[in-house]
Amino acid sequence: MAQQRAGMLTRQAVSEVLSPAACAVGQGRLHWSVVKPRCFLGLLVVKTEVVGCEVSELRIYLREKVASEPRLQYMVGSDRQNRVAIRRLDVNDDHRKWVNTTHKHALDASSGLEEAYLPSDIPHVPLGATVAPGTYQRLFEAFAAECFVTLPPDYWTDPQGGVGIWTSSV
Fold first, then answer.
1. How far apart are CA 32 and CA 76, in angstroms?
2. Domain ranges of the chain
3. What one-character DSSP code corresponds to residue 119?
4. Which partner for 62 in 11, 40, 54, 92 could form a disulfide, CB atoms 3.0-4.6 Å apart?
5. What gap in Å lies between CA 34 and CA 113, rounded to an integer?
């Protein structure tokens, strides 16, 4: 189990953010940055009506060397320095007893611990050096749906320079 800072968010705030009552809506378009050579981070700002979590973000992290193993996070909190991942998705990644297995992590706000579990709502991604076009967007949308985040039309953009991480649409 991963450990995050306990007490950053209350159990009630986490519960509210992960419900339709949060009225969570993505803002604008996905913004990409290069965080290391051949590693891309996509961020979408999310606004909610939950006190202390008014501005949060959905993240997707892509590594060209392991294209079929993206990682996604729903980061929530009052400001960038105090945000915590209340949901994480690791595609085709290892986790203790699971090898090359897609799994999610859910935050227990009171302890700061994350429980890992196997999801049934995430599109399958074959393990390999490349992925089919549209795969990352489908993953992002499935993850956002679990987090009750409404995505705006035309929010998706591909990372600049990341053309080698998915196969061409021949």
1. 19
2. 11-161
3. -
4. 40
5. 29
Residues 65-82 have a mean pLDDT of 85
* End-to-end CA separation in angstroms for the chain: 41
What backbone torsions phi and psi does residue 149 show, to the nearest 5 degrees? -105, 125
Q: What is the pLDDT of residue 169?
A: 42
Percent of the chain with pLDDT over 90: 49
| Other C-beta atoms lying within 10 Å of the C-beta of residue 151 | 19
54: closest CA among 99, 90, 9, 119?
A: 9
| Phi, psi dihedral angles at 135 (to 5 degrees) | -60, -50
Average pLDDT over residues 18-31: 95
| Alpha-carbon separation of residue 98 from 45, 72, 93, 116, 118 (angstroms) | 31, 18, 8, 10, 9
How far is residue 55's CA from residue 82's CA, in Å, rounded to a whole number? 12
* DSSP per-residue codes, 2-46: -B--TTSS-HHHHHHHTSGGG-EEEEEEEEEEEEETTEEEEEEEE
| CB-based burial label for 74 (10 Å; 0-12, 13-18, 19+) | buried
